[in-house]
Amino acid sequence: MVDHAQRLADRVWQRYDRKERLIRYAVLLATLMVVFWAVRDIDIFWPWVWDAPNQISNLGARMWPPSAAGLSGILNALLETVHIATLATFLTIFLALPVAYIAAQNTTPNRACLWLGRFILVSSRSVNTIIWALLFVAIFGPGVLAGILAIVFRSIGFIGKLMGEAIEEIDRRPVEAMEATGASKAKVVAYAIVPQVMPAFFAIVVLRWDINIRESTVLGLVGAGGIGVILQGAIDTFAWPTVATILIAIIVLVLLGEAITSLLRSKVL
């Protein structure tokens, strides 16, 4: 009896039993093997990696101090970047809301529309903004139009998916009450669905506008307008002080966008 009590006292509590620990170790080993295989397969030139700190130091020395030359052009490009993000967000609203409506299970007219809406949302989110920009630059040529359309086609998936989820989470009782009175479909949407999703709508649009500002800063690298065009030109001509000025301007723009969106969301929510 004493020996049994002593054995119970000597037991140490463990979160996982022996089988679970072996499974966890096997998963960890498999993960490490996959990571090792991936690193070997991408063929990294390691001398460049080890020399990266020196290169960063040299590049920083060439960038400092930032150059004020062409500051007016940089500011105009920043304004163009904001215009791209704002116009793209505005256009996305008119395209994404119908898609969100047919992609929500409780408002879609039929299964075909449901899968069509979800296909559009998945297709939009599957392609990166830069890829969309490259496509539209090839179609419309370099310029702001390609950048706006690239952000629009990328933003449809974001706004449409979140708005579709917001529509699916609405309270069905106001909808059923209006349908019971014989209200038309348009009135049901306007008076029973829209009021419930308006807070989510404003929050999603403001958030997407903030994201679009960030994304529009790099579209110029592929010729789709904005501050990225000047940045690419400065890099190509090794004008590193100008590159530093542009990078600082982009950081300031992103911070201002973050502050504005935080203020707007606090007012809405």
UniProtKB/TrEMBL annotation:
InterPro entries: MetI-like, MetI-like_sf, PhnE/PtxC. The chain crosses the membrane at residues 21-39, 82-104, 130-153, 188-209, 216-235, 241-264. CDD domains: TM_PBP2. It is found in: Cell membrane. It is a multi-pass membrane protein. The keyword Ribonucleoprotein does not apply. PROSITE patterns: ABC_TM1. Keywords: Cell membrane, Membrane, Transmembrane, Transmembrane helix, Transport. Residues 78-261 form the ABC transmembrane type-1 domain. SUPFAM superfamilies: MetI-like. It comes from the Bacteria. The keyword Repeat does not apply. NCBIfam families: PhnE (TIGR01097). Belongs to the binding-protein-dependent transport system permease family. This is Phosphonate ABC transporter, permease protein PhnE.
